[in-house]
From TrEMBL:
Claim: Electron transport is one of the keywords in the record: yes
Name of the protein in question: Thioredoxin
Organism of derivation: Nonomuraea jiangxiensis
Family as reported in the entry's similarity comment: Belongs to the thioredoxin family.
Domain Thioredoxin: 10-140
GO biological process: cell redox homeostasis
Molecular function GO labels: protein-disulfide reductase activity
Database matches in NCBIfam families: thioredoxin
One Pfam family of this chain: Thioredoxin
GO cellular component, one term: cytosol
Amino acid sequence: MNTVVTCVNCGRQNRVPAAAEGRPRCGNCHQPLPWIADAGDDTFAEVAERARLPVLVDFWAQWCAPCRAVTPALEQLAHEMAGRVKLVKVDVDRAPALSQRFTITAVPTLMMLNEGRVVAQRAGAAPAPQLREWVEDTLRTPS
């Protein structure tokens, strides 16, 4: 499944697949594009665990107000950190096997994956600056 992303550098629209080798870049100006994808029980391995760059996983639910509140901050982070981080959103109600596998007991729960391994995890919503600091700290910490 592809998502259409507008390049913030040149304004050109680009199709970005949920799973691919490398990192998405604009077909026109070659600048990094934000990579935001959905995953479920059947697609998580391909979309998140096989990604070549660090993955921020958002376990969320449609009925969860804090989940909806944190979504804009996570999407902003994905744009700011284009080429450095991939955001993968997992709806826990549609992915019960993943929720069980990662013992998700509260939503939102955020996880950072590096080369398919969980390197950090936190539960609950937080303001954008706090989330940015958590992601940056996780990226700086050797895995």
